[in-house]
Amino acid sequence: MQWTLVIPLKPLALAKSRLSDTAHDGLRPGLALAFAQDTVAGALACPSVADVVVVTDDVLATRELTPLGARVVPDRPGAGLNAALRHATELVRRERPESSLAALNADLPALRPLELARVLDGAAEFPRAFLPDAAAMGTTLLAARGGVELRPLFGTDSRARHRASGAVELVLADVDSVRQDVDTGADLRAALTLGVGPRTKSAVARLPAPWQ
Questions:
Q1: Which of 17, 45, 92, 176 is deepest in the core (most CB within 10 A)?
Q2: Tell me, what CATH number does 119's domain have?
Q3: What are the pLDDT digits (tens) for 136-153?
């Protein structure tokens, strides 16, 4: 089964506010962009992924992600993460009604294509399925097979909300890179331990000690 991945991305100036203890305002947008670039590159290298749609109004992100192979669509109606995902999935389904879709976080800089393939293969067994994040509170991926409504419920306690909505929680070993999103300095350390992509590695090298 081939999947279309939908990746929402905030305006870079507003992204990753919880990394303020790690990077000042001048560096956080670059970090957020690097995370997104490595996420998109890893996703497009996955054999189960047909295409990637990024939802953002950020001009720089659009300019940098499009050459990687992502299709960028505007964030409409500008009403938050779940509204952005609904908008993008409607666009995809309008063109290809039976497309299998998965919403993926934009902050997975250690993403490994074959681990993502294992997650998507697991999701293909259910109408809707999700993968909890490394903290076991949130969600890094929500999938819906062709013809099934995605029904994104990202945000605080999204793991519990997605489970309550009827989505099946995927229990998979050895997919740490798909679970490790980056919101805090501790998350960034964990991602670096897994091994991040080249753009994140370069962005981290610009941070103050001890991050270089």
A1: 92
A2: 3.90.550.10
A3: 999 999 999 999 999 999
